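Sample 3 of the quickstart, ligand flavin-adenine dinucleotide:
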Amino acid sequence: MLVVEPHDTSTPWDLAIVGAGAAGLATAIFVARRLPAWRVVLLDGAVRPGAKILVSGGGRCNVTNRVVQTSDYNGGSPHVIRRALAAFTVDQTLAFFREIGVALHEEPRGKMFPDSNSARTVLDALLAEVSRRGVRLLAGYRVTAVAKEAVAAQTADRAGRFRLETTHGALSADRVVLATGGLSLPKTGSDGAGYGFAQALGHSLVPPTPALDPLVLEGAFHAPLAGVSHEAALTVHVDGQRPVRRRGPLLWTHFGVSGPVALDVSRFVNRASVEGRSASVTLSCLPEANFEAAEQAFLHVAATQPRATLRSALANLPSALATQPCAPVESGGCAPQLPARLTHALLTVAGVDGHVTLAQLARDHRRRLLQALLAWPLPVVGSRGYKYAEVTAGGVPLDEVDARLHSRCCPGLYLVGEILDVDGRIGGFNFQWAWSGAWALANGLAQEQGGS
Ligand SMILES: Cc1cc2nc3c(=O)[nH]c(=O)nc-3n(C[C@H](O)[C@H](O)[C@H](O)COP(=O)(O)OP(=O)(O)OC[C@H]3O[C@@H](n4cnc5c(N)ncnc54)[C@H](O)[C@@H]3O)c2cc1C
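Result:
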């Protein structure tokens, strides 16, 4: 158990890091490794920091992804994202975790998890390294204000020191890192306080919204589908913008839809809402097919099995599609059958009787059904909110920091992790943003100090 200890307020710290989540812990380690003579303090409001790491990846912590690219992220300047990711690559991340005793393995879709399959291993290793490197962790110290000290109190350092007010007294530091996260899962301690600190020090804010958040659907039509999961593609159509299409597993729930593909598109729905644009979402239950390919497969089944009922032909359409000469390359990833509850819902949406045989099926009914199958308009009313969101979209704009994540608005201030206007898709990309940003920041500080 971490103990809240009194601290020496008289000597300023070289660096104070606010927030001991993934980004703050990694920053503390990398700075302490690069600048071992520095006095580094890491403050967190939680008595036991790292709660978000513990719940991540279903308690297993998806530490990173085998392949991480700038295009896996949304938000501000891709240039800053690219520079940070290049500064600390996936291979360096794997090596770092190996060094601190966490072996990782790869799972489907490139996701990297600890061999222990326990997020606790990741958190404990990070905390142990923080302690080994001599970083002072002040757990249970909530920072309530960050300000530049009055000019009279400044030292020879042109930039001036920072004064941090905490729930256990004040301290001063030559430099401050804000690693306070965003607004997602506020019970873990990230409640947006860091945005206020950044704004008080001259930054602006891209309005935050929940991201990687399940979608809420209007009405009760989806209730009978709760628990059904299948491969899907969701397309978000926002006024005046190019449609965004994402593919992956979808899970129907009592409130709407969840699963990776729903989480991935939620940020686009929420960004549209905060920007006052209207958004609509369509679902394809045959993500690899277009209308022509699906219709061809349907006609082929109708020609070879005219007495099959529509209901069974519909359920088997994915495998029929896969055997078509024009079958798309990716169709092998598709489940051989659509779940029965899903086909029932599709027939209801299309207003077509599933008991008719394929020989009896009218052309306009076939086309209505294919339309529902490939572009079912989902009545999305929003997402579940920060209590359920894995990350926050929006935050401190990336054009207000340089490639070392040094503030362009306030000398001596740095920002890292989710507080910045960056959100990754699901699959380990958000942690990679934290690790890479932490390294870019620490490396930049070391170079400023004349290190290599
Ligand atoms: C349920 C869930 C599952 C997730 N799973 C994954 C996953 O498997 N892979 C992945 O890549 N990403 C995952 N994420 C996202 C990932 O956890 C975040 O992107 C990442 O933790 C952000 O790190 P951070 O350090 O920037 O912020 P946070 O982890 O939010 O840490 C911020 C810290 O700052 C502290 N703090 C805030 N304000 C103050 C203050 N005023 N004073 C002192 N301390 C303060 C907080 O207590 C907190 O400890 C998941 C998120 C959730 C919610």
